[in-house]
Structures are given as C-alpha cells and as structure tokens.
Design brief:
Helix content: 25-40%
Main location: cytoplasm
Structural class: alpha+beta
Oligomer: single chain
Subcellular location: Cytoplasm
Radius of gyration: 23 Å
InterPro entries: Actin (IPR004000), ATPase_NBD (IPR043129)
Family: Belongs to the actin family. ARP6 subfamily.
Number of helices: 13
Keywords: Cytoplasm
Number of strands: 13
Distance between the termini: 19 Å
Strand content: 15-25%
Largest sheet: 6 strands, mixed
Length: 313
C-alpha cells in the first residue's frame, strides 16, 4: 500500500501468466469495490529483480528463484524486463513439503493429518537441505547417540507449551523416556528427506525438474551471449530459501551443471520472504512510478484493456 495526501495507491502481486478472468476480477475488486485511486499489478519476481538491480546497478541480468507456498518460479530478467522464454514453474512449494511431512509422521509415529499449522512449524524448525544425501541417510540409520541427525521435537499443548520447540541435543533421552505430559516427535531422515523434494520432485512421483536443473535449463533458453550474466546473478527468494543449506546446495548443483568457464554466484538476501516487498517499496519511490500504474479514471474510461496494456504480467 502506498499513500500520499492526494491519492491512495496499491501495488499487488500475482503469479506469472495469471488467467485473464482472475486479472479482470482483481481489477474490479481494486477499482470498483475498494475504490483505490491507482493500482499496479505485478509479479513478485519483478519486484525482487528491481530490488536486486537497485543494489547491483552495474549488472544487466539476473535470474530470480521464487520458491514459496504453492510452487516455485524461475524467471530471468534483463535490464529490468522479464524474459518470458525462460520462465519455468515447478509445482513444488512449502505446502507440498508440509503435507508430505504430515503423511510421514502420521505413518510412522502419530496421526497429525489435521495439524497443518503445527507440522509446518516443525518443518521450519528442524528441516534442512542435505549437502550429501546418501551420507546423511547412512547417518540417520544409526541407533542411539551415534545418530547425530536425530532430534526430538516437543509438540505444543496450547496451555503450558504455546509453541513447539526442538530439544537441545544434551537433553534428548535416547531410552525414549519423557516427562509426564510431554508429547515428542522423534525426527531423523525426515529432516532432510522432505526438503529434498525441491531438488528431486520425482522422489514422490512428480515428473518435473528440480530447482538447479530448471535453473540451468531456463538460462540455456536465453541468448548465448547473455548466459554468463545469468549464471553469476542467481537470486533466491521465498520461504523455502530459509532452509539451512539451501543456498549452498543450489550453488553446488548449478556449478556442476554450468560450463566450467562461467562464474556462478548464488545470492540469498537477508530476508528472502520480504525481498519482493522491499522491491515494491523502492518501486513506489521511483520518479516513473506514476507512469506504471493505472488510475481509476483510466480504468473507468478504458476498462480492462488499459490494465492489459500497462501490466506486463
């Protein structure tokens, strides 16, 4: 939301290639129901790219990986414009990871299929991206204290324990005896097997590329002379980028797939979730911002057509 004494603006994000019917409904809601004076509909990746180019003004290209709740988008940008031939969507996001973790825990330990919020918190607190999947899997099969990956997660009871937490390693009881009333999830290979779906969706039957492979494929769809610039400007955004080890794994796999004479750089912003919002804030302060938006007067005069022309979604 952008406010000044004269006009009320809104910047709102939507997915790439959104359905026309949804776009038109959004226009009606913004201008007719909420009566905004002006609106800008834009992709989250475009705002992230704007933020990145603001900080790295010497760079011509970047490729944004936006791995969020419902899916993962990979989009190359050149001089601030998205390159539609390189846009790639992977139907794996945080929701799928949480649901898969619910199924694993329900099958192995405790029925939690109705506890989406709690298990999402478990995922965020204990899961990480493995740098060597087979080595971690071998470790996860060890018993007792030899298994350094094992963690005990204390579930909330919403009276004395408001929020679940991971027990410190030194407080874990490997004999399986817990305090009265304490409900524990013991997690081992689930910690890294769930985020692994971002890199190998085929593990659960989704016949799509993982993030590193899709990244390289997207770059290869770009003109040859631009490809080195994309490889050295990979930007990770979205909640899944917060998994420990995510940036390192993406770098490692992209480096192995990229031509040896190309530099590879993977950037993880300090707050990958709010990075598009920061880009939107910068965009609203741009002197050309008023040229990007559609005003309510424009909409009332020209209808949806003016939005189609101005919003390159």
């Amino acid at each position: 939301l952008y406010d000044n004494p004269l006009m009320l603006y809104i910047v709102i994000t939507e997915p790439y290639f959104n359905f026309t019917s949804i776009q038109e409904s959004m226009n009606e809601i913004l201008f007719e129901e909420y009566q905004f004076h002006a609106a800008l509909r834009i992709n989250a990746g475009s705002l992230s790219a704007h933020r990145y180019f603001y900080e790295n003004s010497s760079e011509l290209c970047c490729i944004v990986v936006d791995s969020g709740f419902s899916f993962t988008h990979i989009t190359p940008y050149c001089r601030g414009k998205k390159m539609k031939d390189g846009i790639c969507r992977i139907n794996v996001g945080g929701k799928l990871l949480t649901n898969h973790l619910k199924e694993i825990i329900s099958y192995r330990q405790l029925h939690v299929m109705d506890e989406t919020y709690v298990i999402n918190q478990v995922k965020e607190d204990v899961c990480y991206v493995s740098q060597d999947f087979y080595a971690d899997m071998a470790m996860a099969q060890l018993k007792g204290e030899e298994n350094t990956l094992m963690r005990d997660y204390v579930l909330p009871d919403f009276s004395s324990i408001k929020k679940g937490y991971c027990k410190p390693r030194e407080e874990m009881n490997f004999a399986g005896k817990y305090k009265p009333g304490e409900q524990i999830l013991r997690l081992a290979n689930e910690r890294f097997a769930v985020p692994e779906m971002l890199f190998h969706p085929s593990d659960i039957g989704i016949q799509e590329m993982g993030i590193p492979e899709a990244l390289v494929n997207s770059i290869h769809n770009m003109p040859e002379e631009m490809q080195p610039h994309f490889f050295k400007n990979i930007v990770l955004t979205g909640g899944n980028a917060l998994f420990p080890g995510f940036r390192e794994r993406v770098y490692k796999e992209v480096r192995s797939l990229a031509p040896t004479d190309f530099d590879v750089s993977v950037v993880l912003p300090a707050n990958p979730i709010c990075y598009p919002w920061e880009g939107g804030k910068l965009l609203s302060e741009n002197p050309d911002f008023d040229e990007m938006v559609v005003t309510r007067d424009d909409y009332e005069e020209n209808g949806h057509l003016i939005c189609e022309e101005k919003f390159d979604i």
